[in-house]
Amino acid sequence: MDDAKTLDRRTFTLEAALAILGGVTITISACGGSSYNPGTPSTPAPNPTPNPTPTPAGDKAGSVSVNHGHTAVITAAELTAGGALSLDIRGEADHTHSVSLSAAEIMAIAANQRVSVNSSSEQAHNHTVTFN
């Protein structure tokens, strides 16, 4: 028999805080708010693929949030050119996203400054790509 109980927000917050203080792991299921579903029970979610390492000398690899196979790399030649750029970050994922970077953002990345941009939205989700 299922012993699930419905809690209001205040009660949940209080019980969650007490559980955390007690060192208990909390699992929330059926929580909405995300438009990306990495898998279903019959299709397990793919393992995230780290950004490529190592990248050729002078290239800059971006870190892709909620990654499932995407790679974002700006080549040394693109950094030197310093113009606006649109990257295809497909990598090993089964779909693609693009990331648009302005000339100012490319120059900031070349100067080792942190730049974060959002990718295009594909398959009902997008990613944040951070360089440096």
Topology:
Layout lengths: L8 H13 L38 E5 L7 E3 L1 H6 L3 E4 L9 E4 L1 H8 L4 E4 L9 E4 L1
pLDDT < 50 stretches = 24-37, 39-45
Number of helices: 3
Largest sheet: 4 strands, antiparallel
State the total count of DSSP E strands.
6
> Mind telling me the C-alpha Rg?
20 Å
Average pLDDT works out at 78
- Give the class from helix and strand content and strand pairing: alpha+beta
Bulk shape = elongated
| N- and C-termini, Cα separation | 52 Å
List the secondary-structure elements in sequence, H or E.
HEEHEEHEE
Q: Quote the beta fraction.
A: 15-25%
Strand order of the largest sheet: 2-1-6-5
Percent of residues in helices comes to 10-25%
Structure description:
With 132 residues, the protein is α+β, with helices and mostly antiparallel strands. The protein has a domain of 72 residues. Helix content is 20%, strand content 18%. The chain contains 3 helices and 6 strands. The chain has a 4-stranded antiparallel sheet with strand order 2-1-6-5. A two-stranded antiparallel sheet has the order 3-4. A hairpin with a 7-residue loop joins strand 1 and strand 2. The longest helix has 13 residues. The radius of gyration is 20 Å and the shape is elongated. The termini are far apart. About 16% of the residues have low confidence.
Provide key terms for this protein.
132 residues; alpha+beta; 4-stranded antiparallel β-sheet; 3 helices
Summarize the structure.
The protein has three helices and six strands. The chain has about 130 residues and is of the alpha+beta class.
